[in-house]
Amino acid sequence: MHNPYNDAITQLQLVAKRLESEYDDKQRFQKAIKLLSVPEQLHEGTLEITLDSGKKQSFKAYRSQHSSARGPHKGGIRFHPGVTKEEVQALSLWMSWKTAAVDIPYGGAKGGITVDPRTLSQAELERLSRAYVRFLGTAVGPWIDIPAPDVNTTPQIMAWMVDEYEIMMRETHTAQLQNPLASFTGKPLELGGSQGRDEATGLGGVYVLEELAQKLGWKRKQDITIAIQGFGNVGYWFAYHADKAGYKVVAVSDSKSGMYVSTGLDPVRTLACKKETGTIDTCACDQEKCHVSLGKKITNQELLELDVDVLVPAALENVITAKNASKIKATTIIEMANGPTTPEADEILAKRDVRVIPDILANAGGVSTSYFEWVQNLSGYYWKKSEVLAKLQPLMATAFADIWTVYEQEKTTVRLAAYQVAVKRVVDALFLRGRV
Ligand code: NAD
User: Among 74, 110, 187, 248, which one carries the catalytic annotation?
Assistant: First the structure.
C-alpha cells in the first residue's frame, strides 16, 4: 500500500542534499535532518462513543506533532475513512514546512480520526469530537499545539472541541485556563473565529498568482486563462478573487462534472446556479446570464488537460499523476489542494518545464489566517475583515519573494526552492535552540 510518510521522508532527504553545502558542520546538519524525519510525538488511540442507538462504536484517532522548533505545533484535524497513522505523520511534516515557508511562528502537526462522518448523526459527531479532545488532553493548548479544521471538519466541530477543552481545563488544569479560545482555530466568528478565514486560502492563492504574474511579465490579465478543479471553499474563493483581479476563469468542476466557458465564466453566478440546480453541468454562466449554449460540459479529467495558461487543482490529493502529467497543457500549476501532484508526475512536469507553485506556498493563506485568529484570541482584540486581508497580502508576497529568489539562484523547481527555504528555517531553529 502507498505510504505517504515514505514520500515525505524522500522529499526531506532530497532537500537535505541540496541544503547540506550551506552548513559548515555537516554532522550537526545531518543530526537535524534525522531529528526532523520523525515526529516529536505521535498520539495514537481508540475512541469509543455511544451511538444514538445505545450501541458502542470505536474509532482510531491520531495526532502527530512533528516539530515545535519554530513555535507551537499547528495543523488540522481530518475526519475521513482513509485516515492512517502514516498519512497523519506525513501531513504533520508538510505542516512544519508550510508554516516555515510563510514564516509564521509555528511548528507542524496533523490529526485525524478514521471515520466516515456521513454515517454519524450530529449528536454522534459531537460526541466523537469531544472524545478526541479528551484523548489529546493537555497535548493541546495555545502555546503547545493549536489544531484547526481539515477535510470534513468544520467551524462547528472546532466550537465543540474548544468548548470541551475549556470544560476539561476547568476540571483539571485551571492554571492553564488562559485563552482557551486560542487552543483551536477555524472557529465560528461568534466563538473567536477570524473575519476573512473562509476566503483566506483561495485569496492567498490569488495573491501568489499576482506575484507570479509580475515576475513573468504577464501584462494582459484578461488573456490569462485559468481552469480550477474543485468548486468548494478553496476553488470557489480562488475563482472569485482571480475573476475580480481580471483573470479569465474558463473552467470549474466539482466531484460530479465540470463546465467550460471559453469567454470566461462568472464565479458568483456559477455558484448560485450550482446551488439552485444541484449540479455544475447546466451552469454555463457569464457576467450576464446562465445558459447552456454559453459553455460546454466537461469531465474532471478533461478539465485537467484543457489548453489553459494556469491549472488550479483545488479538490483532492494525487490527481496529477504519471498517467496524465504528459497531457497537461497548462504552463503553470498552482496547487491549492494539498498534495495534488504525485512525485512521479512532478518529475514529468519539471522535464516539460511546467511551473508548479507548490501547496506549501500556494494554499498557506489558510494557516496564515489561522495564525491571525490565534493572535486575535491571545490579545482579545478583533480585527475587521479589511485589516485581516491587508495583513495577508504582504505575508504571502514576502513568502513568494523569498522562495522565488532561491528558485532563480538555484535553477531548481519552485517546489524544491520552497522546501529549501522552509527546511532551512526549521534546521536553523534547531541549531539555535541547541537541540542538535
Ligand atoms: P471542500 O470540501 O469545500 O471542496 C472540495 C471540492 O472538491 C468540492 O467542490 C468537491 O465537489 C470537489 N471534489 C470532490 N471530489 C472530487 C473529484 N473526484 N474530482 C473533482 N472535484 C472533486 O474542500 P476545500 O476546503 O475547498 O479543500 C479543497 C482542498 O484544499 C483540499 O485538498 C484541502 O486539503 C485543501 N486546503 C484547504 C484549506 C482550507 O482552508 N479550506 C487550506 C489549505 C488546503
Answer: 110
Query: Minimal CA–CA distance to 100: which of 176, 164, 36, 180?
Result: 36
Distance of CA 324 to the CA centre of its chain: 23
SS3 readout for 204-236? HHHHHHHHHHHHHCCCCHHHCEEEEECCCHHHH
Length of the chain measured in residues:
436
d(CA 98, CA 338): 11
Mutational pocket test of ligand 1: of 110, 154, 234, the residue with most ligand atoms within 8 Å of the beta carbon? 234
Q: Are 128 and 47 in contact (CB under 8 A)?
A: yes
Residue 334 Cα to ligand 1 midpoint, Å, equals 14
Dist. CA 13 → ligand 1 center (Å):
29
pLDDT at 158 over 70: yes
Q: Beta partners for 62? A: 44, 112
β-pair partners for 147: 75
285 forms beta bridges with: 290
pTM attached to this predicted model: 0.95
Catalytic site includes residue 31: no
Q: End-to-end distance of the chain based on CA atoms, in angstroms?
A: 34
Question: Closest Cα to residue 160, out of 106, 88, 79?
Answer: 79
pLDDT tens digits, one per residue of 31-57: 999 999 999 999 999 999 999 999 999
177-189 pLDDT, tens digit per residue, is 678 999 999 999 9
**183-198 burial, b for 16+ CB within 10 Å, e for fewer?**
bbbbbeeeebbbbbbb
Q: Is 10 exposed, middle or buried (0-12, 13-18, 19+ CB in 10 A)?
A: exposed
Cell of 358: 507548490
- Dist. CA 115–CA 59, nearest whole Å: 7
From ligand 1's centre to the CA of 431, what distance in Å? 37
Q: Are 240 and 336 in contact (CB under 8 A)?
A: no
CB 292 within 8 A of CB 301: no
Residue with cell 499547528: 74
Give the cell for residue 90: 506525513
| Share of the chain residues as helix, strand and coil, in percent rounded to the nearest 5 | 50, 15, 30
Rounded CA-CA distance 176/265 in Å is 51
